[in-house]
Design a protein that fits this description.
The protein is α/β, with parallel strands linked by helices. The chain has 12 helices and 10 strands. A hairpin with a 5-residue loop joins β6 (115-124) and β7 (130-133).
Length: 333
């Protein structure tokens, strides 16, 4: 059985897939399996997956499925994985050097953490230039305790929203039923708070091990009015389902304040976006999503911020549309 499973969701990324896979094949750590999950590609990526499998049958496995999105592909890969640890890699990205997995798995074998956090950098496609580097963690090494509180209170960037700059103990994910919610935008932002809230023993590594490709084909670059509304609705769903999940965990009051603030930030972003949309139809989608679970606004009782508590009361007293407009005026740029 391999020590590490690398899960790569693939959807219409034929321009970048070979470079991504090559960066994994080049690793000096060889106790690895690569699981390519073709999520209904139509640009030839599905055939390229099969060609890569034919060349590297000893390390590569391929799963073909109908298009279900990144969450579905990651879930398929996680269920198929056999490794002690799992690393999710996006098919247009790559590892930063050939010793990445050797260095990370040395930490995994020495400390057996549930999660290893590391850092990523972003480069401009077609240019030999790094345009952003994730800031360092305050901790460097083994950490046990209230991981969620630590991550939120230290305001670590890209810890709650990015799965690729971490490796996860597979049994930890399976035993805690930590699968991605399918059919949701910002699925990582919904998943990672749940994952981190279940962790008690992790490792922070200040090394920069992962390279994110910034290119115009990225789904994150698509910003039509309809897509903005859909993503805003997803943010509201993340908030309205996240608080009940955390309530069941009996978190420390300080941690509950931090994570509830995290979810209220998402709801605030959705309200600000609603005020910026041009289409009345798209605005109404956000209003309807806000109305689905009014009990979320009662979560203001966990918040230390007076302004946020007042915001929750406004939704109850003034109604959805009026409060959204006030939030847009208050927090919009």
């Amino acid at each position: 059985m391999p020590k590490l499973s690398v899960v790569i969701p693939v959807y219409n990324s034929i321009k970048y897939l070979s470079e991504c896979v090559d960066s994994v094949l080049a690793q000096t750590f060889h106790d690895t399996e690569i699981i390519l999950v073709d999520d209904g590609s139509s640009d030839g990526s599905d055939q390229l997956c099969d060609e890569l499998f034919a060349k590297h049958r000893d390390i590569i496995r391929v799963i073909h499925q109908e298009n279900g999105g990144a969450s579905s592909a990651r879930n398929s890969g996680l269920r198929a994985a056999c490794g002690d640890y799992v690393h999710f890699i996006d098919s247009d990205d790559m590892l930063s050097r050939d010793t990445v997995h050797a260095e990370l798995m040395t930490k995994a074998e020495a400390y057996s953490p549930e999660i290893i956090f590391f850092r990523r950098e972003r480069f401009i496609d077609g240019e030999d230039r790094i345009d952003a580097v994730q800031p360092e963690y305050e901790v460097d090494g083994d950490f046990s305790g209230d991981v969620l509180n630590h991550v939120l209170s230290k305001r670590y960037q890209l810890t709650m929203t990015c799965p690729v700059n971490k490796i996860f103990q597979r049994d930890f994910l399976i035993e805690n039923d930590l699968f991605f919610v399918e059919g949701l935008d910002h699925e990582e932002d919904e998943w990672l708070p749940r994952v981190i809230s279940c962790a008690h023993h992790v490792y922070f590594d200040k090394g920069v091990y992962y390279k994110v490709r910034n290119h115009p084909d990225s789904l994150s670059q698509v910003t039509s009015d309809e897509i903005k509304a859909r993503r805003s609705c997803s943010k509201i769903k993340i908030a309205s389902t996240g608080v009940p999940y955390m309530e069941k965990k009996n978190l420390h009051p300080d941690t509950m304040d931090l994570i509830t603030t995290y979810y209220w930030d998402y709801l605030t972003d959705a309200c600000v976006m609603c005020c910026m949309l041009q289409s009345r139809e798209n605005k109404d989608k956000i209003y309807q999503e806000l109305k689905k679970d009014l009990s979320f606004f009662d979560s203001r009782r966990y918040l230390k911020s007076r302004n946020r508590r007042l915001m929750g009361l406004m939704f109850k007293m003034l109604g959805i549309k009026t409060t959204v407009k006030i939030i847009g005026l208050r927090y919009g740029k």
